[in-house]
């Protein structure tokens, strides 16, 4: 057992930490890495939504309801955006030939608050009022769907992470206590978990929603959705952690920690729960989609994020109408965003699970 | 006053009708700086007795029905949870059988030793002290070792780390529960040498649990032999090894293989240790005892002092 001498050769001999091994194994899984890259991209865009979005989410263009997507195109060496005019009838638009405007980058536009508190008005791209850029078209109020999608992603994407954080913290601590103390404590906690899990989630969500007063501000609604989803979500987590704790508490290092005079709470938090971490990370990644979908369901039912605030769920309420859907299919853009996000989380979660599983290659 | 005095300790697993007596009337003492060995077959109650000192057997299922465990003159059976936390690691430290399982696999060893320091010597919880402790237990290049995870070390090194953790708080009593069973023979010798050396240097007492009578000769001042939850013989180590008195001790020593023997086969004690809750009436060793008589199965013999300092639980110890 000689310690590695500080020679350049020695580096190869030093064993990797568990995290380094985990990362190496993850890197070999291409689909998981793609999922991870997509998520990093989505979260970055959400963080800078105000800057990337060409318009404010509340801005209405009263001349262009249900406008189809307008994409800039190349004209020589310049990127230009065409102008559309409205034809008589039900929101039918036609491109006006030879009337284009160049797309400008880093232009001044609608005021917004970067990260929620830095006032700013610079946008990544934009054009003039006669030549708007509606990448994904507009909705029934003439609002840019692309911009609203970005603002909505701030809510929809963060709700998953914050919700998971809350419910997993609850689940870890309650499950850890239940498994560590076992006996009557365990029985009471587990029966309560089963009670929560036996109620159909959607009814529970809606009845919990009813306990909150109507007419709340959007940040209150946001917090409410997270609390409701976490109140339901922790039970499943607590059950699994309780099972793992039951086996971990019999490990000798737990006895060793007790023999050192460590308190029960610290043994749970410092010695038992960290040993469940690889499972928790995988489970968290795979559960984020449920929270995103939960917000979508609540907002779609009209009890979630309220207009004019944008979220992927309440944007889809516009697509409720079959008539609309037939004529203006771009209203479905949020569902594509949900689809991509959920898929990316699942890809990443599957890869994490394989990388954490020491039995696989 | 002795450092540790266990008096007539009785402990059951379970309560009332289902109660199974795991420790039955165990008494022994450990003086400051003394090494006492607890010897016996598997399942005879060595480990639960040792764990009881710091009340590490969870209650329930354990149930202490009688006796006292006086550590520094205070009964640990009557201590509150908070007091016990201070005793554990502070006055009595433990080293367990399987060092690989005793270390938390997800933390660097330096941090685990530091945790022990934080609990009992918070003013010294720093890297320098951790390195000093690792040096004390003979780990080479401790500066680079503190960053290691347990799985990067060999069994012997892991046991040294465990000993360093146990010593961090400078305990008065070190309980080593078969500390070398999981290690190979050369490493066993190293670990035992280390324990004797540390004992000399730090002046702590050691309670060593083992089923290896060779270790007893090297380490122990006194020996307590346990059988089926009772102490059957308690004696200074040298005398016990030279002239065992209880038939069980004799049988144990006969079953140690000898290098220069004429015997073709290993001699073994016939039968098994009786299962807890299924003890025979009277002397518990009687069914396996070569010199058992009828009256042996009638009454449990007393632990009697037959020579100064020598206690035997057998009235017929004089019969060979």
Features:
A: 361 residues, alpha+beta, 3-stranded antiparallel β-sheet, two-stranded antiparallel sheet, 13 helices, 5 strands, 12% strand, disordered N terminus, B: alpha/beta, 4-stranded antiparallel β-sheet
What does it look like?
The complex is a heterodimer of chains A (361) and B (320). Residues 1-12 of chain A have low confidence and may be disordered. In chain A, the strands form two sheets. Chain A has a three-stranded antiparallel β-sheet with strand order 1-2-3, with no helix packed on it. Chain A has a two-stranded antiparallel sheet with strand order 4-5. In chain A, strand 2 and strand 3 form a beta hairpin. Chain A is built from 13 helices and five strands. Chain A is α+β, with helices and mostly antiparallel strands. By secondary structure, chain B is α/β, with parallel strands linked by helices. In chain B, 31% of the residues lie in helices and 23% in strands. Chain B is built from eleven helices and twelve strands. In chain B, the strands form two sheets. In chain B, strands 6-7-8-3-9-10-12-11 form an eight-stranded mixed β-sheet, sandwiched between helices. Chain B has a four-stranded antiparallel β-sheet with strand order 2-1-4-5, covered by helices on one side. In chain B, helix 4 (109-120) crosses helix 5 (127-136) and helix 4 packs parallel to helix 7 (155-167). The mean pLDDT of chain B is 83.
For the termini of chain B, the CA-CA separation is 37 Å
Q: What is the mean predicted local confidence, pLDDT of chain B? A: 83
- Count of helical regions of chain B: 11
Characterize the biggest β-sheet of chain B: 8 strands, mixed
Please tell me what the overall shape of chain B is.
globular
Rounded to the nearest angstrom, the radius of gyration of chain B is 20 Å
How can the largest sheet of chain A be summarized? Answer: 3 strands, antiparallel
Rounded average pLDDT of chain A = 83
Sum up the overall morphology of chain A in one term.
Answer: elongated
Across the major sheet of chain A, the strand order is 1-2-3
Give the number of DSSP strands of chain A: 5
The interface involving the most residues is between: A-B, 25 and 41 residues
**Low-confidence segments of chain A, ≥5 residues, pLDDT <50?**
1-12
| Total of DSSP H or I helical runs spanning 4+ residues of chain A | 13
Order of helices and strands of chain A: HHHEEEEEHHHHHHHHHH
Taken as a percent bin, the fraction of beta residues of chain A is 5-15%
- What percentage of the residues of chain B does DSSP assign to strands (E)? 15-25%
Helix share, percent of chain A: 55-70%
């Amino acid at each position: 057992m000689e310690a590695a001498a500080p020679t350049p050769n020695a580096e190869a001999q030093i064993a990797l930490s568990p995290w380094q091994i985990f990362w190496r194994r993850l890197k070999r899984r291409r689909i998981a890495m793609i999922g991870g890259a997509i998520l990093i991209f989505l979260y970055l865009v959400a963080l800078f939504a105000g800057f990337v979005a060409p318009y404010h989410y509340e801005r209405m263009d009263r001349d262009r309801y249900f406008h189809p997507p307008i994409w800039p195109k190349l004209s020589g060496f310049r990127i230009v955006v065409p102008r559309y005019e409205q034809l008589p009838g039900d929101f039918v638009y036609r491109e006006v030939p030879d009337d284009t405007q160049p797309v400008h980058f880093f232009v001044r536009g609608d005021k917004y608050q970067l990260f929620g508190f830095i006032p700013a008005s610079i946008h990544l791209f934009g054009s003039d009022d006669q030549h708007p850029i509606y990448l994904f078209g507009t909705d029934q109020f003439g609002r840019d769907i692309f911009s609203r999608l970005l603002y909505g992603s701030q809510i929809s994407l963060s709700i998953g992470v914050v919700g998971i954080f809350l419910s997993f913290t609850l689940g870890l601590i309650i499950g850890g206590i239940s498994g560590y103390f076992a006996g009557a404590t365990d029985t009471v906690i587990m029966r309560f978990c089963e009670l929560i899990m036996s109620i159909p989630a959607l009814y529970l969500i809606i009845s919990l929603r009813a306990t909150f007063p109507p007419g709340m501000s959007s940040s209150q609604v946001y917090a409410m959705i997270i609390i409701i989803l976490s109140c339901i979500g922790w039970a499943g987590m607590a059950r699994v952690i309780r099972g793992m704790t039951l086996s971990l508490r019999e490990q000798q290092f737990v006895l060793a920690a007790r023999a050192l005079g460590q308190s029960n709470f610290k043994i749970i938090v410092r010695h038992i729960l960290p040993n469940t971490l690889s499972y928790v990370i995988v489970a968290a990644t795979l559960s984020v989609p449920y929270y995103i979908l939960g917000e979508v369901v609540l907002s779609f039912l009209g009890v979630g994020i309220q207009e004019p605030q944008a979220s992927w769920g309440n944007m889809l309420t516009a697509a409720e109408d079959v008539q609309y859907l037939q004529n203006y299919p771009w209203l479905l853009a949020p569902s594509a965003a949900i689809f991509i996000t959920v898929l990316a989380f699942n890809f990443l979660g599957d890869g994490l699970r394989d990388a954490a599983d020491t039995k696989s290659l | 006053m002795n450092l540790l005095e266990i008096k007539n300790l009785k402990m059951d697993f379970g309560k009332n009708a289902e109660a199974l007596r795991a420790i039955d009337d165990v008494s022994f003492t450990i003086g400051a700086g003394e090494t006492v060995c607890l010897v016996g077959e598997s399942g005879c109650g060595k480990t639960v007795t040792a764990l009881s000192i710091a009340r590490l057997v969870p209650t329930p299922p354990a149930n202490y029905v009688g006796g006292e465990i006086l550590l520094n003159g205070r009964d640990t059976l009557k201590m509150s949870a908070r007091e016990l936390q201070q005793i554990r690691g502070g006055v009595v430290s433990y080293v367990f059988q399987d060092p690989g399982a005793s270390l938390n696999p997800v933390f660097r060893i330096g941090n685990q030793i530091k945790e022990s320091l934080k609990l009992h010597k918070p003013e010294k919880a720093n890297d320098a002290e951790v390195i000093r402790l690792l040096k004390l237990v003979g780990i080479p290049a401790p500066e680079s070792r503190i960053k290691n995870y347990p799985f990067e070390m060999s069994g012997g090194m892991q046991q040294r780390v465990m000993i360093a953790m146990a010593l961090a708080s400078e305990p008065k009593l070190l309980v080593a529960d078969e500390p070398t069973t999981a290690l190979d023979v050369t490493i066993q010798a190293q670990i035992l040498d280390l324990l004797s050396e540390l004992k000399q240097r730090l002046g702590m007492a050691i309670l060593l649990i083992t089923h290896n009578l060779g270790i007893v000769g090297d380490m122990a001042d006194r020996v307590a032999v346990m059988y089926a939850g009772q102490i059957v013989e308690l004696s200074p180590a040298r005398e016990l090894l030279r002239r065992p008195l209880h038939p069980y001790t004799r049988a144990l020593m006969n079953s140690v293989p000898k290098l220069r023997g004429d015997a073709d086969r290993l001699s073994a004690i016939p039968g098994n240790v009786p299962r807890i809750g299924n003890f025979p009436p009277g002397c518990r060793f009687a069914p396996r005892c070569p010199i058992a008589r009828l009256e042996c199965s009638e009454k449990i013999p007393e632990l009697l002092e037959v020579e100064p300092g020598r206690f035997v639980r057998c009235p017929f110890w004089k019969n060979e």
